[in-house]
Amino acid sequence: FSPVGKMFRPVVRLSTSGVRSLTRTRPCYSAPLASRCYSHAKVETDEEFDARWVTYFSKPDIDAWELKKGMNTLIGYDLVPEPKILDSALRACRRLNDLASAIRILEAVKDKSGPHKDIYPYLIQELQPTLIELGISTPEDLGMDIL
Amino acid sequence: MLHLTTGRVGCLLSKQAVVALTSSGARMSSHGHHEVSDSVDMSQPMYWDRLDTPLPDRPWKDVLDSTDKSLKQKEKGPWTALSKEEKIALYRLKFNHTYPEMKRPSHEWKTVIGGMFIFFGITGLVVFWQGHYVYPPQPHTFGEEWQAKQIQRMLDMRINPIEGFSAQWDYKNKQWK
User: Is residue B98 within 8 Å of A144, Cβ to Cβ?
Assistant: First the structure.
């Protein structure tokens, strides 16, 4: 089992497709269907997205509010975060001496995976070195994954 | 401000997230939920159990006794030094329900279906009573004899003789086809 890095890339990205922008300053080409007037805003690539979030959680003096805000926002997106983002978030928990939130984050990403049962084991596999290093037990280890 | 009223209507209107967020009055404990909450002061940071918002504004247990405090101190050191029970205890200090507990099925559907049938039953009783006490007598044209004479007249008049009514009647053998 060797997942390609892009395998779990978010599929749906914001609203940059299928939006017909009818600005006055940018007239649409009156060409047939093939030419669409998409927004001319720059689309963030997956790598840029990941890098931005890794940087967010890597802030050395991140505070509890920023961690909460970051995680809640991230979980609000229509995607499962990449292991490197989660790694950064778990390390932020360590800096904040917050083991409970670290476990909560693992629960949350498992729930985010929805019906795709293979995502969470992959994440845990990728995060294993960090989990061991920081001493974070998974919910499964603690018997908290069942009622 | 969302209030849950006691009884069926409240249960029918409640959703999992709202239930945990805020409530006043008691939820039906026969549903399998075991918490009864008082009204929440919404001017303070709130706690919530939500699948889509994992980290609430405040921890579950705000007031820590000395055991909790010493555990919190230990949390500042390496987590490898914590036992499983201690880790679980730390989680339970900060959070009320785990994700599986949040997602646990409730017995609410039984109340919903039961309530539905009760209302059907009451409606049935009302309809029956209405039929007996409210409706006027049936027109005389509904009677057996009149209906028979009516059908005979229709056949005599050859109503819809090609594809319809009279077409179904076998005039030779005087019976329906």
Answer: yes
